[in-house]
């Protein structure tokens, strides 16, 4: 049994190739990534899906970490893998890790961002420290009963690094570089919190998840309109009421509804969310004062 | 038995969604696409792959139209489908079509282009007419023993409309619009050739396929370097000798080799070509005088 500071997961979705490639290269060149003195455990989240070139085999691994599913007897590939990851690397596992960083990519033109699940103080401290270093936007995912069971929730602290745009199944140097940069910033913040030197910004800008929108659909469930060309790649930018939102095949337009005005869309046209019937998600931009208990929680976690 | 002027194929690759969606909408709104008076037969190339959300099930359908394979007894899903398409819609089929237009998309940043296989006069007339209308680049694919058996080769005239960039499994209004525009231009040129009004440019600019380059690979066959960020999205632009071509994980660079200087890359980082070990293809830009026998061949095909 060896304990580690950080679990670094790539390939939780098997067709998101860039972070997995980075981990492979890091394995071959142990000094490739600056870990800021932390001990890191590298793992491919879903190696079977990676080998198959698909997001998952039986079910989305990153929606499979609900406590009841982990405790149940479901035998889907991803449920078994979720249990294995928690047993091997969870805080009470054989090789326990304190923090989990889960590396993802998106087809949406979101650039690099952090995804935080809920409002755990240590997560917010980590996100705040990284936002101070790199200015990355933070997508706060909470209160969505249709989307639960994320990997990092099973560790006492953890977040997702999300980089795009990149098609599924494409290796792109830019995405590898951006992933490494965000990963190294996370590791620096975690390392500094251990030594009590963790710096926080005065405030944290979060994009708080409100709800998601689907495309309009016909009687067979097929989309009868698509996102409007003017919306593609406009993640993080406020929607204007009455601006074009969808385009029907005949060129007619469906406008942004009034109740979405000034909300910030994210995950615009993410390939993997079509099956979840999410064309984009709507967020509210909020500026939160950074609280002293956030960094205290991260420091305590990294103690000893 | 009904004969048609044009066979319009979408979804030859099941995870290229946009043209299939356009055909579905066209089915619902018969006047959605301006056919210039031609009779069109619409077909989804690989419906099983489309349903599965993958490029293909057993083998690439668009490499399955070699005469020996069609005449053989191979039972892969795509071989059976290739035979069925030729039997149903081939020039000697139950519902014969004169021209085949095969609608594809790519993850490469190539914009809209036409792909022509070999130098059949009627194909060149069609490409010339469309280049005159829309200025689309023409990728002339020939002399590549590793890549054969394309669908349109089994019809007396036919070409591929290729639109990108778009990730696999993503519906994008822009790609739908571009696909429809190029399709309508093809139909206009074919229609005008029937009435003897087919206009041709004085010359046809072709990008003639020379060879393809793969990424460098390690002893396990995995890429040890990726395309350099400066190459991404630079399809159709001449390579400079000594410019960055690949980037290793440590940031070191592999330069453009001298023998690629001034060649034009296409299909840069196309997702589906990774398995074919093609990181990009190299072409030679050539300006050909348009020959009178080209349009004569297309006119003859459309007669009666």
What descriptive keywords fit this protein?
homodimer; 304 residues; alpha/beta; Aminopeptidase; N-terminal domain of TfIIb; 2 domains; 7 helices; 12 strands; 27% helix; 24% strand
Structure description:
The structure is a homodimer of 304-residue chains. Chain A is an alpha/beta fold. The first copy, chain A, folds into 2 domains: 4-205 and 289-302, 3-Layer(aba) Sandwich (Aminopeptidase); 211-283, N-terminal domain of TfIIb (Single Sheet). Chain A is built from 7 helices and 12 strands. The first copy, chain A, has helices spanning 17-28, 47-52, 67-71, 77-89, 121-134, 173-194, 292-302; strands spanning 4-10, 40-44, 97-105, 111-117, 138-141, 157-164, 203-213, 226-227, 244-247, 253-255, 264-266, 280-289. In chain A, the strands form 2 sheets. In chain A, strands 2-1-3-6-4-5-7-12-11 form a 9-stranded mixed beta sheet. In chain A, strands 8-9-10 form a 3-stranded antiparallel beta sheet, with no helix packed on it. In chain A, α5 links the parallel β4 (111-117) and β5. The first copy, chain A, is globular. The model of chain A has no long low-confidence stretch (mean pLDDT 97). Chain A binds chain B through residues 21-22, 24-26, 28-29, 32, 54, 107, 165-174, 176-177, 218, 222-223, 226-229, 232, 247, 249-250, 269, 271-272, 274, and chain B through 21-22, 24-26, 28-29, 32, 54, 107, 165-174, 176-177, 218, 222-223, 226-229, 232, 247, 249-250, 269, 271-272, 274.
């Amino acid at each position: 049994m060896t304990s580690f500071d950080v679990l670094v997961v790539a390939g939780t979705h098997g067709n998101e190739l860039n972070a997995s490639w980075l981990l492979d290269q890091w394995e071959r060149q142990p000094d490739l990534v600056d870990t800021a003195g932390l001990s890191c455990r590298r793992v491919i989240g879903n190696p079977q899906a990676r080998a198959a070139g698909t997001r998952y085999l039986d079910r989305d691994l990153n929606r499979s970490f609900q406590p009841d599913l982990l405790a149940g007897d479901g035998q889907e590939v991803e449920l078994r893998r979720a249990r294995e990851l928690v047993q091997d690397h969870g805080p009470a596992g054989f090789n326990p890790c304190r923090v989990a960083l889960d590396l993802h990519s998106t087809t949406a033109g979101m650039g690099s961002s952090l995804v935080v699940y809920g409002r755990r103080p240590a997560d917010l401290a980590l996100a705040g420290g990284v936002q101070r270093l790199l200015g990355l936007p933070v997508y706060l995912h909470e209160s969505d009963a249709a989307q639960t069971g994320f990997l990092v929730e099973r560790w006492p602290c953890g977040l997702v690094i999300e980089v795009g745009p990149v098609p599924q199944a494409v290796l792109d140097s830019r995405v590898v570089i951006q992933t490494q940069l965000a990963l190294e910033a996370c590791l620096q913040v975690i390392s500094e919190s251990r030594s009590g030197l963790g710096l926080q910004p005065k405030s944290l800008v979060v994009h708080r998840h409100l709800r998601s929108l689907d495309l309009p659909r016909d009687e067979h469930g097929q989309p009868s309109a698509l996102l409007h060309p003017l919306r593609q790649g406009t993640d993080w930018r406020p929607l204007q009421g009455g601006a074009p939102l969808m385009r029907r095949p005949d060129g007619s337009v469906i406008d942004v509804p009034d109740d979405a005005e000034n909300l910030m869309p994210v995950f615009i046209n993410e390939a993997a969310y079509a099956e979840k019937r999410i064309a984009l998600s709507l967020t509210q931009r909020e500026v939160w004062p950074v609280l002293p208990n956030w960094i205290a929680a991260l420091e305590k976690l990294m103690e000893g």
